[in-house]
Specification:
Layout (H helix, E strand, L loop, with lengths): L5 E7 L22 H13 L7 E4 L3 H10 L6 E2 L16 H9 L5 E2 L11 H17 L5 E6 L1 H13 L4 E2 L9 E6 L5 E8 L13 H14 L2
Parallel strand pairs: 1-5, 2-3, 2-5
Antiparallel strand pairs: 1-7, 4-6, 7-8
Helix pairs in contact: 1-2, 4-5
Length: about 230
């Protein structure tokens, strides 16, 4: 009899705008999906339409809750705050000549646990809260297929751990807005990574070749230069 592994669809929230139309920064804890993000989530909803989900997990931040509501409208989404995005520091406290490097290199290479994301939370601190939550999900055998709508940094931590079984952060796992990663879980708790960074609205990633952090840097620079 073939082994029936459990499946986790690990999704990043859809597109948001961290600056308002007038250039003012938006609180990342409360930022909603923008029109592009809503459209992205609707395409993912169609891709997952025939899949029966036993659980839908979010970080509880609005951008994950809104994405989950579009992608899995019939599900009661759970909020797991320990799966919130890695927290950056105050950009105003980072020297101007170092800011670009810290943005565009934030998720490059194998990142040591002591490295701090934009001088805020460290990679090790991210693992400290994400891995126990992942273990709690694995220990609960009451689900067969689950969707987790989370964040780019958190997804990288989960994917890295799934591949290495260590606290090793592989920063080059790009996570496009509303992308879906597919992970299967065996009876012994071992993960199989079947697909990474699948964007149903742009399957071949033709729209651009920039990373998310490179695009965030350009957005930040555009608005700060205009002040």
């Amino acid at each position: 009899m073939p082994l029936m592994r459990r499946r986790l669809y690990l999704m990043r929230h859809a597109e948001v705008s961290y600056f308002s139309d007038n250039g003012a920064p938006v609180d990342p804890h409360g930022v909603p999906l923008n029109d592009e993000g809503i459209a992205q989530a609707r395409v993912v909803a169609e891709a997952l339409r025939e899949i029966e989900l036993d659980r839908v997990i979010t970080s509880g931040l609005p951008r994950t809750l809104e994405t989950a509501a579009i992608v899995a409208p019939r599900a009661a989404a759970e909020s797991w705050p320990e799966l919130r995005e890695i927290q950056g520091g105050r950009l105003s406290e980072i020297p101007t000549d170092a800011l670009q490097h810290e943005f565009v290199h934030a998720f490059r290479g194998v990142i040591p646990n002591e490295t701090r994301f934009l001088r805020g939370e460290s990679i090790g601190e991210l693992f400290d809260r994400v891995l126990p939550a992942l273990e709690r999900l694995v220990a609960d055998d009451g689900w067969h297929t689950a969707l987790a709508v989370l964040h780019g940094g958190v997804n990288r931590a989960i994917l890295s751990h799934a591949l290495t079984d260590e606290r090793m952060f592989l920063g080059h796992f790009e996570q496009a807005p509303a992308c879906v990663n597919v992970l299967d879980l065996g009876e012994e708790g071992e993960w199989i990574v079947r697909a990474v960074n699948v964007a149903p609205y742009d399957l071949l990633h033709l729209s651009h070749r920039s990373t998310t952090m490179e695009r965030y840097w350009e957005e930040y620079r555009l608005h700060t230069d205009s002040e």
